[in-house]
Amino acid sequence: MTTPSAECVEEKTAVEKTADDHTAKHSYKRDPSQRVFVGRNLRMEKIRFFGFDMDYTLAHYKSPDYEIMLFNRTIEKMISMGYPEDMRKFTYDINFPVRGLWFDQLYGNLLKVDGFGNILTGLHGFRVLKPHEIDEFYPNKFLHLIHNRVIVLNTLFQLSDTCILANLVHYFDSDPNYKPTVDKTGVRQGDVFMSYKSIAQDLQAATNTVHNDGEMKRHVLENLEKYVVKDERIKPLLNLLRKNGSRTFLLTNSEYYYTNGIMRYLIGEDWTSYFDISVVDAKKPQWFAEGTVFRQVDVATGSSKIGVHTGPLQNNQVYAGGSCDAFRVMCKVRGKEVLYIGDHIFGDVLRSKKARGWRTFLVVPELEHELTIWTERHGLFEQLAALEANIGKMYKNLDGTADNKCQSMINDSVMAIRKVTHEMDQAYGKIGSLFRSGSRTTFFASQIGSLFRSGSRTTFFASQVERYADIYASSCYNLIYYPVFYFFRAPMMLMPHESTVDHCTLMKKSKSSKRNHAKAAEANSLPTQTSFCHEEEDDDPVSEEETRVGSPSTSDSEAITAITPLDKSFSDPTGTQSPA
Ligand SMILES: [Mg+2]
């Protein structure tokens, strides 16, 4: 018979053993904050050109100071357009905005959706939409990504816009001078009707002015220490990447005067010597399509020289505009030999990959916070997994004879999952702001949750990262922790039939399984494969198709058709290009 103390010893040993196994399994991995995560295999030694965006990539802006500055300046522009002075009372809540939300201009709702447009959470102003409201607004809890209805708030520059939109809808809905219209598409004051769409359009106009009139950028240049993170790893990283003969280039939408100010602060007066090619005012995503005139910049005056630059691109020179085609011809480089590093899912990553076949590295600064919650609140994720496993167990032995009692038990578990999901979403925000009560669960309305997930479901933003980013990390400087010959390997992705059937499961034998066994035996007689890796190898010389102007690199062009018009319109304050 085992004594209680012996049981404790045995139990402790088992726990320790599990911990040891876990440690052994993960001991080869780097510190999470220094890691680069892999969506598709990428061999660093095959990259000949490392390209960098500047804003929010090489130059990271200090949060929340930078967002608050954008928030206040945009509000001032809107007041100057005739919006109420009360807008000055709006405050930027750092815990409120999360990237990737959709703003439905028809009904004025902020929506968190999954990769298919299914609605996960909805807010009207700061008020969380109740399930029946979502049903009324959006039958099937689904919304199409329609260009003239939905604005995707995908960029870091749009965090302040997200906050202003919620403030504006909340303000006009709460102000007794304004009455919501019966069709719920806006508010009315006497004869004046303001649709939510017109409010969003005015906000876009104000944001464009802030980004383009130069005042905001001059203010940043005058206060660099306040707004820009000076990362000492910038020189070592750029030197490291060029160590084996690879080249580096800067490709930014910012104008020369602004780029020069930021890069001098980060690197020094000789910043151009750290890049083989420097391109400013690129006008991405247009740069990856038809582009504009390629001109050399007169660094003494900051203005572009007349005429079109046609010769080879030279070190220490700065160019403006141009196009991917001109760049490819001048540098004699194939798309897959370029790794472009940027923070803009559409302007940097989606376009360069889909239109040009570049390899892509997406910078997602929020990752550090996301990983902190993932690790510190792991108990919630384990609870969720246990609840889902429990439902699986209940379903396992049910068939057509199951009664209402069984269904009720399952419904209870579903509600428990929703509760944990809400708790998980809260964990990604900070306690405070607005409450909602009166429903089954109480949670903070201002906390929309994670950038990547809502409970066990992933978001629209996450689906874009999975689809278009070969690798991603919280900072481009994480590359410094890897050798230049590193092989980034994507983790094996399992299909549902693989992830839910254990290897040790005993399958009932059937005729087809006997046939499969025969095939397996035949396969085993073949020479052993030296590698299980399924990297797409291609060392062929440049094909005619690759050198053809504008040749798409993938076949699923329907996806870009669906996303292009939308992202192009709002990810870009100018309406034609991304802000950085
Ligand atoms: Mg950028």
TrEMBL record:
Polar residues bias spans: 571-580
CDD domains: HAD_cN-II (cd07522)
Residue segments, region Disordered: 1-25, 516-580
Binding-site list for GMP: D55
Entry superkingdom: Eukaryota
The entry's keywords: Hydrolase, Magnesium, Metal-binding
Active site: D53, D55
Binding annotation for Mg(2+): D53, D343
UniProt cofactor(s): Mg(2+)
Cofactor binding note of this UniProt entry: Binds 1 Mg(2+) ion per subunit.
Entry GO MF terms: 5'-nucleotidase activity; metal ion binding
SUPFAM superfamilies with a match to the protein in the record: HAD-like (SSF56784)
Single GO BP term: GMP metabolic process
Regions of compositional bias (Acidic residues) in chain numbering: 535-544
Regions of compositional bias (Basic and acidic residues) in chain numbering: 9-25
Family: Belongs to the 5'(3')-deoxyribonucleotidase family.
Descriptive protein name: Cytosolic purine 5'-nucleotidase
Organism for this UniProt entry: Steinernema glaseri
